[in-house]
Design the sequence.
């Protein structure tokens, strides 16, 4: 099925560093969702965005809904070891129940 | 908090067996979904349901069926398990209306191995 493009595919960072990742699509979305998945677990919803230009925070996480509605960004400030995992973006096809998921960004934090 | 639970975390079955994966959500959500997740292929939608007894095929329904007899419960059935159905299976639910209607909440997953 169709997927959203995420970059980077993987990141190795030092504890305390800030992290940025993005998600792009050729189609317009009305909602962007960001999930984190730990190994062997289901994805956990981090942030939901509903309006172009919207900037939403959840603790050290901040996500933005791109103005073009074709992209979204996730930033993590002052990373800690438990930030390790795979981060997915997702969005619903307009007018349907079907969702597209990003290819994922694998984050590893070095203590 | 929304809670989506899945009946098993790990399951090992033999080729040809009939397999039932159960999912229960406690937030009165109308929509429920079954995905499988494989390395390099991401999450792929198998089936979804938007109401009791209602179901629609997703992208990869072959070899699977579903049942939704009660609003809170959505079952995935592998009629005759095959080795290529070895995967991580994820259930999700979302409300039909309201502010959070687009937010899918996932269960912990069932890792199924078919021998």
Sequence:
């Amino acid at each position: 099925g169709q997927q959203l493009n995420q970059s980077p595919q993987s990141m190795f960072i030092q504890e305390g560093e800030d992290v940025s990742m993005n998600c792009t699509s050729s189609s317009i979305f009305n909602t962007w969702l960001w999930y984190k998945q730990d190994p062997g677990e289901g994805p956990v919803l981090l942030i939901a965005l509903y309006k172009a230009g919207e900037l939403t925070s959840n603790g050290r996480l901040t996500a933005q809904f791109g103005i073009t509605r074709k992209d979204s960004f996730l930033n993590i400030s002052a990373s800690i070891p438990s930030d390790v995992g795979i981060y997915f973006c997702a969005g619903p096809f307009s007018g349907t129940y079907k969702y597209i998921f990003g290819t994922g960004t694998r984050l590893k934090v070095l203590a | 908090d929304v809670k989506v639970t899945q009946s098993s975390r790990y399951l090992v079955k033999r080729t040809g067996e009939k397999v039932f994966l159960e999912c229960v959500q406690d937030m009165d959500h109308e929509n429920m979904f079954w995905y499988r997740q494989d390395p390099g292929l991401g999450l792929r939608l198998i089936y979804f349901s938007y109401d009791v007894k209602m179901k629609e095929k997703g992208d990869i329904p072959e070899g699977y069926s579903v049942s939704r007899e009660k609003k809170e419960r959505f079952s995935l059935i592998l009629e005759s398990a095959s080795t290529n159905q070895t995967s991580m299976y994820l259930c999700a639910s979302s409300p039909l209306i309201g502010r959070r209607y687009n937010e899918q909440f996932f269960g912990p997953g069932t890792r199924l191995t078919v021998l």
